[in-house]
Amino acid sequence: MRSPRSVKSLEKLGRVRLSESFFLRDFLYSEISQIESIANIPDYPDVAIEAGTNLCEKVLEPIQRVLGRVSIRSGYRSPSVNSMGARNKNQYNCSSNERNYAHHIWDYPDKHGNIGATACIVVNSFVPYYEQTGDWQALAWWIHDNIESYSSQFYHPKLAAFNIRWAQVPEKTIQSYIAPKGYLTRPGMENHTGCHADAYGNYLSTIC
User: Fold this and answer.
1) pLDDT tops 80 at residue 208
2) 3-class secondary structure per residue, the chain
3) Is this prediction's pTM over 0.90?
């Protein structure tokens, strides 16, 4: 599939269904794109569709089936959009294109040739629990224990929104900008394996 060059072809691309609940158009909105007037369109739509389908089918849909509606805060970024975000890092807080290949830039593989896709999401049912308790780790550990195909999670203070990634070679890491900042877990840490149900039982009781 060629990269769209008309409204009609972009509409057609946006109608591509990545999973039961998600279409590609859900992931193309970008504040940087809007403000800076830069098109947020994949150069290689077939790769973006493949990576996005895996993200939606293997990660987002399983979360939504159990925890309820997932809201998309951001998803795909074209290299041009991400580059603008990286050049204005203090304002837009984007990593370099090279670091975002196979992350927010879905249609370019990483330096090892592997594809991946990241979206920043909010789990709506988690927001009241998080605002009352400040406990972002409950959601992180539930995903770690129950979503086998996730690659990484990275949490932000507002609404406990977090970047979640699917990748051909999963990393299985959890990081946060919310205290305690840094890595919650990654391969090699003692807490990486086993069941962590004690960490999220209180949250699950609020949605049952």
Assistant:
1) no
2) CCCCCCHHHHHHHHCCECCCCCEHHHHCCCHHHHHHCCCCCCCCHHHHHHHHHHHHHHHHHHHHHHHCCEEEEECCCCHHHHHHHHHCHHHHCCCCHHHHECCCECCCCCCCCCCEEEEEEEECCHHHHHHHHCCCHHHHHHHHHHCCCCCEEEECCHHHCEEEEEECCCCCEEEECCCCCEEEECCCCHHHCCCCHHHHHHHHHHHC
3) yes
